Amino acid sequence: MPELPEVETSRRGIEPHLLGQKITEIIIRDHRLRWPVPESLKSEARDQKIQSVKRRGKYLLIDTTAGTIIIHLGMSGSLRILPAKTRSQKHDHIDIILSHHQCLRFHDPRRFGACLWTKEDPFEHALLKKLGPEPWDQTFNASMLYKRSRQRKIAVKNFIMDSKIVVGVGNIYASEALFESGIRPDVAAGKISLKRYENLVKAIKRILEQAIEQGGTTLRDFTNSSGQPGYFEQELMVYGREGEPCLQCQALIRNKVIGQRSSYYCRKCQR
């Protein structure tokens, strides 16, 4: 699944092509995404000028003069900027045609993504309203994590992956941040000290920033908005490296299923 860096990479890739453009037409080839694509999108967004392209967690928000298009890439979604007359391929579900004769094309083989429309404040939408802070928000800090984790028996990896605690820390980057901060992923969140949470917050921010700079992680179903794969996969320290030597101590990387997700760690470097 595309994680926050992949979504931010997509946002940055499409933004220059969308800002200031008028939506001349919206083509919906298949309404059957994770939630049905509203038919009203075609009429209410038409002839509206795009004012901004934002991201909230893993959601992309295309603000127009009449409302906001909310896009989620799901498990396998991707966005492309193409000439409007480019022939559609299988799984090309939506085209947003723009006034400069280009289109934003939403491709999603598994159809777990979403394309919704709201005329209200998008941050009050049911999907976004209860999201936690962004990783770079001032409210996301060690003190907050420490206070919210007290008496919690949930594994710290699941704790930081909870979007109500902080958005955008998916499976890959949670594993990497816990390795960098020397914390085992299965330790109870309530047992982590304030000092260790300080290290973890720094690791989360640094790793996500680095991933964004390098274009996101290459996943099986993801390529960025220009059609080129991300590059951060080359920098992964533990994720996907089960049985390989730790790059710091040479102990073999282990894999443990936590919360139905594979969690990679080094038993010597992480405690």
Write a compact overview of the structure shown:
The protein has about 270 residues and is α+β, with helices and mostly antiparallel strands.
Features:
271 residues, alpha+beta, N-terminal domain of MutM-like DNA repair proteins, Helicase, Ruva Protein, domain 3, four-stranded antiparallel β-sheet
Task: Walk me through this protein's architecture.
Helix content is 24%, strand content 21%. It folds into two domains: 4-124, MutM-like, N-terminal (N-terminal domain of MutM-like DNA repair proteins), CATH 3.20.190.10; 142-265, Orthogonal Bundle (Helicase, Ruva Protein, domain 3), CATH 1.10.8. With 271 residues, it is α+β, with helices and mostly antiparallel strands. The longest helix has 20 residues, at 194-213. The protein is built from six helices and ten strands; from the N terminus they run αβαβββββββααααββ. Strands 1-6-7-5 form a four-stranded antiparallel beta sheet. Strands 2-3-4-8 form a four-stranded antiparallel beta sheet, with helices on one face. Helix 1 (4-18) packs across helix 6. A hairpin with a 2-residue loop joins strand 2 and strand 3 (59-64). The chain has helices at residues 4-18, 40-44, 142-149, 156-161, 171-180, 194-213, and strands at residues 23-28, 50-56, 59-64, 68-72, 78-83, 92-98, 102-107, 114-118, 254-258, 261-265. It is elongated, with a radius of gyration of 20 Å.
Which residues form runs of ≥5 with pLDDT under 50? 218-223
| Oligomeric state of this protein | single chain
CATH fold-level assignment of the largest domain? Helicase, Ruva Protein, domain 3
Count of separate structural domains: 2
CATH top level of the largest domain?
A: Mainly Alpha
- Please state how the strands of the largest beta sheet are arranged side by side: 1-6-7-5
CATH architectural category of the largest domain: Orthogonal Bundle
Q: Write down the overall geometry.
A: elongated
